[in-house]
Amino acid sequence: MEKGQNSQGDARRRRVQRLKKMIMLSVLIWMILPVGLCIVLFGRISALNSQIEETQDSQQQLLQQIAAAVAQQEQITATMAQQTPLLDRKEIVVSAPVAGADVQNGDMAVVEPEAAHKVYLTFDDGPSKYTEEILDILDDYDVKATFFVLGKETEYSVKMLQEIARRGHTIGMHSYSHKYADVYRSVEDFSADFYRIYSYILENTGIQSTCYRFPGGSSNTISDIDMHVFTDFLAEQEIEYYDWNVSSGDGGSVLLDVDTLVQNATSGISGHETSIILMHDAASRPTTVAALPQIIENILAMDDTVILPITEDTTPIHHIK
Ligand code: ZN
């Protein structure tokens, strides 16, 4: 009986001890588990921290690269501002010397001779089949004129353009296309046309033209855009534009006879200090060529009056203010 009680007591003690062990074990597990989890989480956090640091580093590098790129961009913009939009004026040449001077397209300071009346013969729309004849007449009287030319690519036109330059006359720009709708469509179109005629003259003659005559004049009624937009554009390029205050009348739809042209081109000169005479170098204007000798003779016969090519020294005539 006692032995049986003892063995029962042993069994209970063992159960109690097992229970104790299990309780201890579960307590241990419950203590270890959070600690283990904490360790794992700490590990994760520190890994994430180092990733953040790496990202911050590369962000820093990226920002530095952006700053460097911006600085480079600013430098480029500054360099471009020095070079553009103005035409390169380093080797500025006056496209024609004053009358009588031997220097052609030289880098000379142009000083116009003193006279009470300065007269400028200007020919628009060339070169044409009459260009050579006009040049010969001008040579006969030893006077220099101004040709506001268009962009004509034929071999003959280029030859005539070069001949105008070779004989010491001023070459001005009169647009490349002379198509009003295209030239005056927008300032971008105007600018594109301007650079075309500027380059055409430069490439074929080496002359950097500095003067411009608007197709139809600055007071034309064709442009839908305020002409000041275009005069401002030219001013930015340091290009002067020249209208006229004496018209031969040879630009109209009716072909005028020689006497009328002479009368139109010469009357009124004595009333101006500066007379810029509008004429045309165009295939459809034969009477202009026929009238030219008389026009020149009449002007040369006037008191205190000189015929000059347009230079940067010339007082411009502007139709619009
Ligand atoms: Zn014209």
Written account of the structure:
The protein is α/β, with parallel strands linked by helices. It has 8 helices and 8 strands, in the order αβαβαβααβαββαβαβ. Strands 1, 2, 3, 6, 7 and 8 form a 6-stranded parallel sheet that branches. Strands 4-5 form a two-stranded parallel ribbon. Strand 2 (146-149), helix 3 and strand 3 (170-173) form a beta-alpha-beta unit. Helix 2 runs parallel beside helix 8 (286-300). The protein is rod-shaped and about 160 Å long. Mean pLDDT is 86; it is low at 79-84 and 89-108. Zinc ion is lined by residues 124-125, 174, 178, 215.
Average pLDDT rating: 86
Q: Which ligands appear in the coordinates?
A: zinc ion
Taken from the alpha-carbon principal axes, the silhouette is rod-shaped
Q: Classify the beta-strand content into a percent band.
A: 5-15%
**Oligomeric state of this protein:** single chain
Tally of DSSP helical segments: 8
Stretches with pLDDT under 50, minimum 5 residues:
79-84, 89-108
Question: What attributes does this structure have?
Answer:
8 strands, rod-shaped, 321 residues, 8 helices, six-stranded parallel β-sheet, binds zinc ion
